[in-house]
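Below: protein 1.
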Amino acid sequence: MVGRDKSAQHKRIAVAVALMAGLLLGVTGCASSKKPLTTGSIPKLSKPVDSMTEPELARAAEAIGQSYERNPMDRNIGLSYANVLMMSGRNAQALAVMQQVAIAHPSDRETLAALGKAQAAAGQLEKALGTIGRAQTPDRPDWRLYSAEGAVLDQLGRSSEARSRYRMALQMQPNDPSVLSNLGMSYVLSGDLKSAETQLRQASQQPGADSRVRQNLALVIGLQGRFQEAEQIASQELNPQQAAANLQYLRGMLSQQNSWKQLAKEDKAKKAS
């Protein structure tokens, strides 16, 4: 019983990581009805933040950090800086940045959404839920905020409520891969791996599905013991560097429940028989 409880705990940790990836996607780029609140200049980056290596993220954080230091109340610079910090795993610092930006722009919708994202990344889930709720407006709801709210609710163990938010998001943005991915990982938390795989396969087939969606699909297939298939999906990326990163992610997630070698052994035995 102890071993089973520990395995379930490790699975929840793995899914929480995947849901946080979905949350980072979900509230990035939330539309604001207001005009830009800044005249500051953000350093031009060579590629999207979510495809950067660790050294590239470190250089981006340094460059944007210098702009932030010159003008810490600038909304756009603060949003960009906090996003790079979170992608680098510097969650406490990202939250501190967003708290400063929110002081200067307390009613700006995009700022509130980013603050909620930073709170969730720092583990302040109840606060994040309240902040994301304040960013949402009933007359003009944002599907990204529904999805982000669902990701936080799932981490709080409120999966039924979370799925209702994902469905609300999908009504507004049908077949969005980030929402479908979060819905799939929500099913993993309740142990329904078949439903999870269905949602994640649908997500991976959508235009705009990125590496993190395929990583989640590979993880769910791996959790079902189909090791070779999981590895093939994790390797299907645009270049060898991305493929290697995906395999590292998959092995890291499955090793949290000490199952990578066992899955490989079982998969080999099935093929031999």
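Below: protein 2.
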Amino acid sequence: MDLQLDGKRVLVTGAGRGIGKAVALRLAEEGARVALLARSRDDLEAVAASLPGESLVVPADTTDDAAVRAAVTAVVEAWGGVDVLVNAAARPASSAPVPSLADLEDDALRVEVETKVLGYLRTARAVAPHMTAQGWGRIVNVSGLNARATGNLVGTVRNVAVAAMTANLAEELGPAGVNVTVVHPGRTVTERTPPDVAAAPADTRIGRLVTAAEVADVVAFLCSPRSVAITGDAVAVGGGTPGTVAY
């Protein structure tokens, strides 16, 4: 299937590593021009060197609205607009023990909201006028399956908030031709995953962990004109959660 992404102007946040990096590579392979955003210029330069086709490095911290707007302006000045935004700039889920309510500090949630929820909102807010002016666009927010589970209050709240934001943006922007979706990865194999963990059986319906490249395959479809029938909804990309029914 031709995803019709050839020549599309894409901005990927969190592109220096993990799922964001994998998404950038997958979209570049589809012929898109990919602008890479993260805090580390060195990481972005390394990713850019590995991409086929045209790319652009725009370092920025998504907790800084002025920096986000400047990065989007740089992309628009270079390429004349933005067709696709993939938001993946977020702190990875921690493997540390989850604190009890008595031990949970305000900043644990405040930092996550500032980085993931407001960070995604800032980039969407900056690109939306360009997409609506041209009558077409795609925004894909990378959230997480903690949105559908208890046991980690901070993880659940931040990911549910991203899903709620996605639905609201989809309703506002949809009439102008802009689709907004959210994907929920589970534990995902990235370049930082130890080989023994990546190869071990996992509690998923496919019996193993999903890779960042496999998440990127789904994201690439959602970024394409082919995905017009999907907007405002959440797509799980964690290999299937046993014992649950999502409806």
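DSSP finds seven helices and nine strands in the chain.
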